[in-house]
Amino acid sequence: MRDSISSGWYLSWPFAIWCLSTVIFSGHQAMALDHPRLPLTADWVVLSGKNTDGHVVARKYALVMDTPDNLIRNVLLFYCSLKEDSPSYLDFVIPKEIKLSEIFGEENVPSRIFRIETANSEVGSKSFMIAGEVKGNELFFDFSGNYRQAVLSILIANKVTIFLEGDQKPFEFFTDPSFKAPLDDKEVSLDEFVRTMIDRSGDFSRTLEMWYFERTCIDIKAWKKSHP
Hints:
Helix content is 20%, strand content 43%. The protein is built from 6 helices and 15 strands. The protein has helices spanning 7-11, 100-104, 148-155, 190-200, 210-216, 218-226; strands spanning 20-25, 28-33, 37-39, 44-47, 55-63, 72-81, 89-93, 108-120, 124-135, 138-142, 159-165, 168-174, 180-183, 186-189, 205-208. The N and C termini lie far apart (44 Å).
């Protein structure tokens, strides 16, 4: 994967992926993460043979430029339920560079309320309080109860910001259709770059639109029918 990218690209990366600030700790200077931001693919991608029993697994990917050996990260997954007794749910995979256990005080938290902000060019910005489960560096949010609208808003968002501690410690995922990444001898969109890397690794990928979730996910289909 590294062979397809020139080393100079890392030095000229146009976004502030990790916004760093200098702090003093025990008399020594150190670098601390302050509002980390990751560029995210716009498309939801499904990999052949990678679904689970009872769920279609759609994925979004981010680039983490500080780790070229692990450049493409599957940071957002949506499990679209095919069974009435199992909800659809979102899974945010926070990069391990962020120590969630240090924020929450433990590795696993069965239930915690998070503030999430979403932005979409068609419907504008929205803010939600949503209950989620913490497992290691993953945050899970079910399509259930009063949180259904929040999950749907995340599915169509161009930008999602999760506040990890009250209104503090924002972590942002964003899409920018104008961004181009160098691939071989040309520049391509982030989505094309990621899908090409996935396909070259031997996995076949295809994209899904929002209408697919509305027609296929059992619980979303039922909820949309009662909330036209």
